[in-house]
Amino acid sequence: MSEVYANRRSRLREHFNAAGTAAALVTRPANVRYLAAAAPRGAVLLIGRSEDVLLCAGPPDDRPHEGQPDENLRLHVLPAREGDTAVAAAGLAAGQGADSLAVEEHHLTVTRHRAIACVAPRLRLIDLGGAVEQLRVVKDEEEISCLRIGAEIADQALGELLESILVGRTERHLALELERRLVDHGADGPAFPTSVATGPHAGRRGHRPTDRRVEEGDFLSVCLGATYRGYRCEIGRTFVIGTSPADWQIELYDLVFAAQRAGREFLAPGAAYRDVDRAARQVLDSAGYAEALPPLTGHGVGLEIDEDPQLAPAAMGKLDACVPVTVEPGVHLPGRGGVRIDDTLVVRPEADGGPELLTITTKELLAL
Hints:
The protein is an alpha+beta fold. It has helices at residues 2-18, 29-36, 85-95, 110-119, 131-137, 141-162, 171-184, 247-265, 273-285; strands at residues 23-26, 44-47, 52-56, 74-77, 100-103, 124-127, 189-190, 195-198, 219-224, 226-228, 231-232, 235-240, 298-300, 307-311, 324-327, 330-333, 337-340, 343-346, 356-357. 33% of the residues lie in helices and 20% in strands.
């Protein structure tokens, strides 16, 4: 595995060297972990002229899911209260003879940026931009394996909840139970705050669970995800509670299901991001729900739950093979509720069977 991280750093080095920069400072935690195998709290990574150094504010955590730093990196632990790791890294870069340093301006605070400029005034600071994020878009099979295991854990936790009694329980209680089950089945923790939405809340994207109790005839929409070895997946499903669905519930569910299927079927290497969004959105637009739609149909997943690419109307770019994304159309009708169906898939060429579905909990409209 050490070779994997060395190759990632080498690709980044080629990128910033081609732009005329001698060294790079990576501060965003997910990017540090991607390049160094671990990102202890406060750690930064210096990709320098003579060596690469992981600077930490304290000894790395020995918890297995936090990972261990790549053994090919020099580990530099700052003495207690010595200062900012990013500032110390800039000093090291200057000491290595670098005349320029690429930094992640989208992550650095203004205060930190000024401190770096102050400690190494001869360093020319250049924006690294989203170079590491772009490297992270296409996953290797080890990364996809972590996502696959996380998806299995999320499926298992959701499946167990569906077998329990739901009427009378609060959204908040159900969300907490799901998160406990994720950990019980081997997740590092939830990939994001679990959303359980009932009745008029159902189908609302990013709904925060409340003390509303589940009632007969409710739509119940659940969105959860597991983190496994740092990698985060996502699944969302909608059900009806305790009785046969009403006609309007069946109609709305079938419509969202058709939209989700259209988006999934469009996932292929070379497909434009916005065309995937359009495929799902057109189904709902044509039924008159344009005003009720979320701003995007899906997004990339990996070390963060919401990363590139964005499957949205104005998104630029095309999908590659081995890119994991969500497809998650939904409709929320104020005062009535709604439907959301969300899967994590990996883009694969048709010769390999097409998109690989990681989250396999049934999408049949079940009455629980």
